[in-house]
């Protein structure tokens, strides 16, 4: 047993051991994105308790479990990755139907977000079996929490997880053009060998702030915020800045109110004759105003009308 996590395993047993963990259940377990200490006590307990661990990479997961002092034999590890997820789900379901508890982990973070796991969870649910999430580390929420992106009201509130953009240059440029029309906080992911290309593509966003999170939770963690146009130069200034896994956050952009007056006038005219979605689409196409902003406005008008009518 790993000396470093002996007390953690004991604490996991004390804190989570008295809870109920039903059989025939798939436990979707979040694991650290870089710092092994970011495991939860409940995750440790379930990984020990599980009859088998389905995982994205058996070698990686075996190494992680060994570091925690969780003993699992090779036969207790089931490979479930993006290339075999549908077929491997059948094996997992068969085991669950026998009354086993199965934990699923990706290589890092919360499964089913950008890593495999969604198809497995869906297949288990379709089979009438239980799926139970164990929340934990995620590069997405980690970066959002540290970026200080102050969301506004309406269309710019909240955030959207975009994930990896297309790898081909033309498709990536088209994707960035679509992001430029979205005023919300947007979170992207990128691998080190493509970060320079992504930075060049995002530079067209000019003054829109971008927060880069590199090697989050690890020893050489780096978080920096700057205008999108400055990101390529920032990366080029130090070769170390292009190493490691990246999460990027596009800060919300303010909706230009001076151009919305005309868009609202057009929207009001269209709403008098057309369904809301059709009116919003046409108003956005005619005026160039953000469709999300116009839709929020239309809903607000509808609520006001209903309240006024009693």
TrEMBL record:
Q: Which domain of life is it from?
A: Bacteria
Domain Tetrapyrrole methylase: from-to ranges? 25-231
Q: Which CDD domains match?
A: RsmI
A single Pfam family it belongs to is RsmI_C
Q: What class of enzyme is it?
A: transferase
Please give the biological process terms from Gene Ontology that the record holds: methylation
Q: What keywords does the record list, in alphabetical order?
A: Cytoplasm, Methyltransferase, rRNA processing, S-adenosyl-L-methionine, Transferase
Question: Which reactions are catalysed by this chain?
Answer: cytidine(1402) in 16S rRNA + S-adenosyl-L-methionine = 2'-O-methylcytidine(1402) in 16S rRNA + S-adenosyl-L-homocysteine + H(+)
- Compartments (UniProt record): Cytoplasm
A single MF term (Gene Ontology)? methyltransferase activity
RsmI HTH domain location, by residue? 260-302
**Protein EC:** 2.1.1.198
InterPro entries per record:
4pyrrol_Mease, 4pyrrol_Methylase_sf, 4pyrrole_Mease_sub1, 4pyrrole_Mease_sub2, rRNA_ssu_MeTfrase_I, RsmI_HTH, SAM_MeTrfase_RsmI_CS
HAMAP family to which the protein is assigned, alphabetical? 16SrRNA_methyltr_I
Q: Which family does it belong to?
A: Belongs to the methyltransferase superfamily. RsmI family.
User: PANTHER family given for it?
Assistant: RIBOSOMAL RNA SMALL SUBUNIT METHYLTRANSFERASE I
Per the entry, what this protein does is: Catalyzes the 2'-O-methylation of the ribose of cytidine 1402 (C1402) in 16S rRNA.
Q: What is this protein called?
A: Ribosomal RNA small subunit methyltransferase I
Source species: Comamonas sediminis
Q: Which gene encodes it?
A: rsmI
